[in-house]
Specification:
globular
Length: about 250
Amino acid sequence: MTEPVVSEAKLRYLDFLSREDCVRHHRYVEEMKQYELMKNGDLSAIGESARLWTSGLYGHVCDDPLRNAKYLFVTSITLATRFVIEGGMDEEDAYNASDLYIQDVDRCTTTDEVRRLHADMMTFFTWAMADMQRGEVHSTAVVECMDYIRYHLHERITVPMLANHVHLNPTYLSELFAGETGTTISRYIADQRMEAARNMLRYSQYSVGEIAQILAYRSPSHFGKVFKDHMGVTPREYRNANAQTGIWPE
């Protein structure tokens, strides 16, 4: 009888090596979390994915680091493609994007290039799902305002500026936006800045002062006050708490 390619003895040996090297494979539910977030257009998927990719806990499938990274990339984009299709993305669009990314990863010459491409892929799919879901329930003017806000969080944003951008009366735009989203434009801008701040505190090395400047807060102290009003803790407390817990149990 021919011995199977993956025998029980080999599996036990790999398990032994994993324990000896302190290698922890991602738990299934935790690994799928990034794709569920992506499918729902939740921007935190981007940060979760970046953390998983650099954690060093993914399975070792090849001794060559570059080839190993490429194999992991292909596995990840295969899952990502399935999730976005399940979430409603056009199949042809999803598969075309997947094919292009796989062609790009084949041309990568360093593991860092693969990492950056993976971050780009997760960002592309996540924003695509977010845009698609917003487009289903909001008018063109409101979607354009959301997009403008998203790309200009580093600048001062006012209702008249948005109204000029979409060629509508400021009062009418405010009523339209509130009617479709259930929140005011000012509150939406504040919430988007706060989401960006939380992600930067969790996943970047920027100081609190730098984050305040990047997100167009008047000063670090103003940023700290607004953040505490929203989150109940200071930016430093939030960063320290999340840096301690992360998404993986010790």
